[in-house]
Design a protein that fits this description.
Layout (H helix, E strand, L loop, with lengths): L1 E6 L2 E7 L3 H13 L10 E5 L2 E5 L4 E2 L5 H19 L13 H11 L15 E3 L8 E4 L2 E5 L6 E3 L1 H15 L1 H11 L3 H5 L2 H15 L2 H16 L1
Antiparallel strand pairs: 1-2, 2-4, 3-4, 5-7, 6-9, 7-8
Length: 226
């Protein structure tokens, strides 16, 4: 749960996490980013289950019109690359286990996908959920990167691919814009698409709502025919 609070005239955000591991993970990430040249919240206070941080300015990208969202996703690409150049703190949660994702997906009976794990491209500081719901903007620039509970040390191209694939489901132009702005080889990025499709399908299968799962299932069957 996330809510706005005010202390001593300061506008803050209070985030409550029931999972101690994810709580500690976000705290570690925010502390590590205090000196980074990135628009991230400042950690103000933390106690078991509660993190208090500064409120970042701006509006979520997923609340914006398609053209504005596209421009601001493009603006986020260099920031993602900059994050990947930061030194990650010790003790972050493990990176996603792609072999397990593939095995779970096949056991669950999802639509056939060309599932394979692409060659590794390094290990870097990853946000873990770089989506338009976790990016804030005003004007032409990104003013806030929030929700660091899934931060980990992982593959930079995998993280970019997850962001691009998810953004591209709303607007196909978004994937190209984000990849180009980051400065990556599109072929290397899109090699991860099937993994992210399987990961999202498993999430919808577990957490719903059912109509999201049905829609994605239809999309993945079309992907196979395409």
């Amino acid at each position: 749960m996330v809510r706005r609070v005010e202390r001593d005239g300061r506008h803050l955000v209070e985030k409550r996490l029931t999972d101690p591991a994810r709580h500690d993970n976000e705290v570690r990430a925010l502390r590590a980013l205090e000196r980074a040249d990135l628009p991230t919240p400042e950690l103000v206070d933390e106690r078991p289950g509660v993190i208090v941080m500064t409120e970042m300015p701006g509006e979520r990208l997923d609340a914006q019109d398609p053209e504005t969202r596209l421009a601001r996703l493009r603006a986020s690409g260099p920031l993602l690359r900059r994050l990947h150049e930061e030194t990650p703190p010790k003790g972050l949660l493990p990176a996603p286990d792609d072999a397990t994702i593939i095995a779970r997906y096949r056991r669950a009976g999802g639509p056939p996908l060309p599932l394979r794990i692409p060659p590794a491209s390094g290990l870097v500081f990853c946000h873990g959920d770089w989506t338009d719901g976790n990016l804030l903007a005003t004007g032409a620039g990104i003013t806030g990167i929030v929700d660091w509970e899934a931060a980990h040390v992982g593959d930079p191209i995998r993280e970019l691919a997850r962001a691009a694939w998810g953004a591209g489901r709303k607007d196909a132009r978004s994937a190209h814009a984000l990849i180009e702005a980051y400065g990556a080889d599109p072929a290397l990025v899109h090699a991860w698409d099937a993994i992210h499709a399987a990961e999202l399908w498993l999430w919808f299968a577990k957490a719903g709502p059912p109509e999201y799962l049905h829609q994605l299932t239809r999309e993945l069957h079309e992907w196979r025919r395409g």
